[in-house]
């Protein structure tokens, strides 16, 4: 045991992403070149940046656009055996305009594609923990709430 009381505190990493919609209420999933599953635009929060700033930066880096980033939909406490403690923030990107859609330029080092999908199919399209988070985020978008989750589930 250590004499440093701070040694027992978690050092959770924070990540932030954005949930975008099309005009048919489908959600955007991106195809990262470095993962074997579909994801949402986003990434880790860098030192000195807020989660919202990180989300906006990641959208610009990955999609080449800078749409307004809306309110927080989900905060998810999501420890991972291989990555440690994490807290994940998911913001509302709203419905992308035709101008934003036409301006998308995928970050070649990060993404190989993107598509919009019906939320009812999300569990077939990505990993379970992300699918659970996206279902809650989709609902929060529609009922104007923010949800606190643990491992993608409300407690």
CATH class: Alpha Beta
* Neighbour order of strands in the largest sheet: 3-1-5-4-7-8
How many domains in all? 1
Helix/strand-derived class? alpha/beta
Note the gap between the termini: 32 Å
Quote the CATH topology: Nucleoside Triphosphate Pyrophosphohydrolase
| Largest sheet properties | 6 strands, mixed
* Element pattern in H and E: EEEHEEHEHEE
Q: What are the segments in which pLDDT stays under 50 over at least 5 consecutive residues?
A: none
CATH architecture: Alpha-Beta Complex
User: At the fourth CATH level, what is the homologous superfamily?
Assistant: Nucleoside Triphosphate Pyrophosphohydrolase
Number of strands: 8
Number of helices: 3
Radius of gyration: 16 Å
Helical coverage, percent range:
10-25%
Identify the overall geometry. Answer: globular
Beta content comes to 25-35%
How confident overall, as mean pLDDT? Answer: 93
Description:
- It is built from three helices and eight strands; from the N terminus they run βββαββαβαββ.
- The model has no long low-confidence stretch (mean pLDDT 93).
- It has a six-stranded mixed beta sheet with strand order 3-1-5-4-7-8, with helices on both faces.
- It has a single domain, classed as Nucleoside Triphosphate Pyrophosphohydrolase, CATH 3.90.79.10.
- With 155 residues, the chain is an alpha/beta fold.
- Its cofactor is Mg(2+).
- InterPro entries: Nudix_hydrolase (IPR020476), NUDIX_hydrolase-like_dom_sf (IPR015797), NUDIX_hydrolase_CS (IPR020084), NUDIX_hydrolase_dom (IPR000086).
- Pfam families: NUDIX.
- Keywords: Hydrolase, Magnesium.
- GO terms for molecular function: hydrolase activity.
């Amino acid at each position: 045991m250590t004499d440093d009381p701070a040694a027992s505190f978690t050092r959770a990493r924070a990540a932030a992403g954005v949930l975008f919609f099309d005009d048919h209420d489908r959600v955007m999933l991106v195809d990262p070149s470095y993962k074997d599953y579909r994801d949402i635009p986003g990434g880790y929060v860098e030192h000195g940046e807020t989660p919202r700033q990180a989300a906006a930066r990641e959208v610009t880096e990955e999609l080449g656009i800078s749409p307004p980033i809306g309110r927080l939909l989900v905060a998810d406490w999501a420890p991972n055996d291989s990555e440690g403690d994490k807290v994940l923030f998911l913001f509302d990107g709203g419905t992308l305009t035709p101008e934003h859609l036409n301006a998308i330029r995928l970050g070649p080092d990060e993404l190989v594609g993107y598509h919009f999908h019906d939320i009812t199919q999300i569990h077939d399209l990505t990993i379970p923990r992300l699918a659970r988070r996206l279902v809650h985020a989709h609902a929060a978008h529609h009922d104007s709430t923010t949800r606190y989750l643990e491992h993608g589930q409300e407690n």
